[in-house]
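Researcher: Here's a chain I'd like modeled. Treat it as a single chain, no partners, no ligands.
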Amino acid sequence: MWEKAPSVKVKLKKLPYKPNNGYEGIKKTTVMMQSLYDDEYVYFLIIYKDPTHSLNCFPWEKQSDGNK
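Model: Modeled as a single isolated chain. Structure tokens:
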């Protein structure tokens, strides 16, 4: 389905990621975004270069108590 979904590419400049601890920082990047939905959920695909190779994720699913 992702192959059929329209995509948007956005060039970002002036990012807040400063050099730190050997990391060179990011000054600009291009982000590609797509979304799909079904009867219950909306799905997002966001692709960008991550020179930190960060694997940290946040739970973007609303919890049963209403928290995110």
